[in-house]
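During the no-cost extension, the postdoctoral fellow (Dr. R.K.) reprocessed legacy sequence entries with the updated structure-token encoder. One reprocessed record is reproduced below for audit purposes.
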Amino acid sequence: MLVTRFTHKLRLKIIVSQIAIAFICISSPLLIINTASAQSQSQTQIKSYIQRLKNPQQRAAAIDYLATVGKPAVPALITALQDSDPQVRTSALVIIAKIGPNAAQAIPALMRAIDDKDATVRSHAVQAIAKMGRQAYVPYIVIGLDSKNQQERYGAAHILRAMGKDAASAVPALMKKLDDKDAWMRVNVISALGSIGKAATPAVPALVTRLQDTDQTVRHSAAYALGDISSSWQENLSQLSIKEIDTTISHLEKALQVLQNPSLQFRPEAITAVKDPLVILKKEKMRRAK
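Re-encoded structure tokens follow.
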């Protein structure tokens, strides 16, 4: 499955590159063409150059042209990845790698290409994946959070946690899983939010609620995540508005009250995880008041 294979690839550090490839938009102020006609002409040219990938003498020029076209050429390149000629499939992967993150919609096809029967195709598929950039994968990993397969759900949460700040766009989807019936899923989702840091601030009120979860591991995970998110704010204290500081202090004070409830049996480390950033934020508030 997609998420399972992607987990293995992440562990092997296939997705390590953060290279952004700029693409060139071709336009001419001398031409006045209506939008529909221009798009039609463009697609016709793209299909023409895709066909040239089959010709060894024209292949290099076709690769250069399609890479320059960029994102509009991606759908045709995805189709080319199914061509019976491995040279065409390889060329399509070379172009996708050149386009980089703007070819993110090709990710599912790239994952399939990793298992291609041709070794050269497989090699270029890995290279293309490395050019995508970690953030490009988030929408596809998020899908795994709703998988019917338990291990795939866990796997998706694990990957997002490992991605840390790069998984910021997954925060809304992760928040929806905070009420998951599966306690271990709640633990994984909470840990992912904690690793994302500041971008996961919208989840703070819900995490405070999770401090009273029926599962002890979930409760402790929520405490540590609150600490991680609050600590991430400390990196740019001077940039925080007094309103943001007040709001965060309010949430952490509520959290600390819950953490100090003897019946919930929180470990000292969990209490400290919330208490320390709270103290720092209060000091910052006092400093500004002076």
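The chain has 15 helices and no strands. The radius of gyration is 24 Å. The remaining legacy entries will be reprocessed before the final report is submitted.
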